[in-house]
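Exercise 7. Predict the structure of Tyrosinase copper-binding domain-containing protein from Kingdonia uniflora.
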Amino acid sequence: MSLSLLHNANIISANPNPLRTSRIPSSISQSFASKRLGVAHISCEQKQQDSVTTDGTIDRRNVLIGLGGIYGAASVATGANMASASPIAPPDLTKCQPATDAATKLPVKCCPPTYASYEIFDFKPPPQNSQLRVRPPAHKYNSEQLAKFKEAVRLMKALPDDDPWSYKNQATIHCTYCNGAFKQTGTDVLLQVHGSWLFLPWHRYYLYFWEKILGKLINDPNFAVPYWNFDNPEAMSMPTMYLDPTSPIYDDLRDHDHYSALLDLTYTYNKANPTAEETAKVIEANQTRVYRAFAETSNNPELFMGKPVLAGEAVPTTASGNLENLHNILHMWSGPPVSPYYNMGNFYTAARDTLFFGLHANVDRLWDYYSRNRGYKVEFDQEDWLQASFVFYDENRELVKCKVKDCLTPQSLGYTYSVEKQDNAGVHRKYLKRRKAQKSKAKSQTLSEVSAFGTKARALDSTIRVLVPRPKVSRSKGDKEDAIEIVIIDDIQIDHTKPSRFDVYLAKPTGRLVSSDLGELVGSFVNVAHTHTGSGTEAKMVLQLGITSLIDDIEAEESTKLVVSLVPRLGEVTVGGVGITLLTTQD
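Solution. The predicted structure, encoded as tokens:
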């Protein structure tokens, strides 16, 4: 996957629906655990030019020119295939229950009014001859666009609370699906769209209908919401359009210390803002982090998007993808640093802040970038994902049932994103050169011995550094195309109702010895306060991070063992094991 220009490729030349005719049968054996080729150690027993119309939309027909037989029509699952599938389905709408505010542990009302009394219709995607709405970056939103946005939100906030379009009800939808208002049909398992492969498609639909309702309120079918382009150096700050206290899109429940601060993706609550002298270094680190999120996951969407989850799993295993963990950092950075973390820092209230939708528009855009650089191959060609479904109020005040298979690209829903130029890969290369020069100039450091993780779970109350054997060394290019090497942090135990974070670093040892330098950041585990499971059962949590290209970066392909460091940043965390394994590519 080419990452040389993260935003320079033509986003518009895309596949409207990339479903292929073949299907991989669904089964639990397709989960990540069964795809491990060899666990070394787990402790604890075609381009085209698009025409933009004068109103800022793009003629969708131009997107389709030349695609013809490349992708073809979506193939409907066969009866035999559906028989074995266990996709998550909409809940029983008559059984909405009080949700839980994670911070206060108190019951809260997150049931949309008259939900159960509505007839449910199947969602129909926009016709393929319609124009594409173009979502622009927030830092380039013009005065006319901003005026329309403010007016639409003002009108939404003026609606009565029992209107499904009202701002309160639209914000409540996030709580409904994220804080335990519904159980999966016929089970005691709470319906939860975070921590799995449902995260991205659910939020794509959520934002889509919010945008369509806003457009309906101002009678503008081409209205497009902005995206907070936080991966672009020009936009690594809270967008100024959201900071006017007199505006309907303003929310005072934010971290005011960040109103003029540079975004720092290493942030945890109460960490000081970067100084002027640190600006260049922080921007470089932010861009490098975003680059790695894509570079290590291109052949295995599970690492980028989250682990599969099936209907009725008694104790679901939660494994958020790289993009969700990255997004969690933005939630923390935007909201107040003290409990109850309203609004952005608590999933119960997060969508009350209009900034939430700017954040998720960029998350959606980054998913589109990921898909596009994979040639729009279906990320999970399994019915358990493609047939998973949700219900939303649409722009006609009707309740519609939406399936994942119908939202695989923004274009299939009638919108796209404006093009922004950025070279994260180039920044990453410069970073590696700088780090190499820095190490060559450094004075010799005292080496200390590192041991294995051990057989018991360990509290992450200080940095843990462990020596982990690799399943295979001297891997060829072909080997790397067939399987991704990953670090697995197993059996993570946290209190979901409290925020937490730890970072994972990788270093090349000398025998059993290693210097005090932690090495290179692999990724992070980041939890935003929420309610996750029901019946007193906690989800099993796993963190999976790709390290194939990183091993090349630190010149450790010949090393039989690597040093993995877990650095606590926030909250109480217990870890059951650390390992390195090979995960077969999904393509």
